[in-house]
Amino acid sequence: MKANYYLKRLRRYALVSTLLLPSISHAATSPSQIPFTVENQEIATTLDGDKNEITDETARYFTIQEVTVRELTESVWEKEDKPLAQTTKEVGDVVMLIDKIIAVGKKIWDIVSAGRPVVQTNMDLVISVLPQTAKEGSAFFDMEGWDVPESKDFLVEFKNGFNSTVVSFVYTVFYQGGGTFEGAGKYLTGVNITATNVNVSWGFDFNAKSALVAISNHGSKANPEAGATLQVQYTVKNWMKHITATETVHVMGRGEIKKLR
After folding, report:
1. What is the count of structural domains for the chain?
2. Which pTM was predicted?
3. Does a structural domain hold residue 256?
């Protein structure tokens, strides 16, 4: 037969791995669809130079038909496991500046690599959006009035042609607002995105990364309110397809978070 060993094993493992994929049981809002792009991969050839035969079953299994996201109304994090906000005297490098407001910390980082959550060993390099001072980042240690840290969990699911979830994960947006400097403003600290509950079916490769793409001032020059726009980009690959999807979230110094499209 022209179908290689890889395809011969599909019927034995593909549907089983989909059925065994763990599900998230936490309460959630209704799902909304996420736009995604698809690139076809070059199909491998057999030893005699012919293209592998692709059955309808194979194509349906490896084709992503829908990507959805839901906000979880119940946190996936145990209280003792939730990452903490800024804890030491390091606030990181300045990565963005606008209207006397600076962002310090990190600009881009991996949250899932090869289907596994990336453990962020240096939680001090979260993002803070602070007032600009003569010594960049030093204002952080003279600020007060911070709100309690907040977080929002979002469940993302990739479904194939069998309407089965083949890739799923939860990303969490952490943030802490309300900080004032010399009695004015509402600034941000502890801004971060991490991943957990990553589940990937047989035959798929999954990676995700986050980035700070913009900062803004929702207030005035005399009484600024910091805002930070973050992007989550994820890619799913298999031997037939390369799928990319992106989401954008915005957090504000008043302690609010909004999903953007």
Report:
1. 1
2. 0.83
3. yes
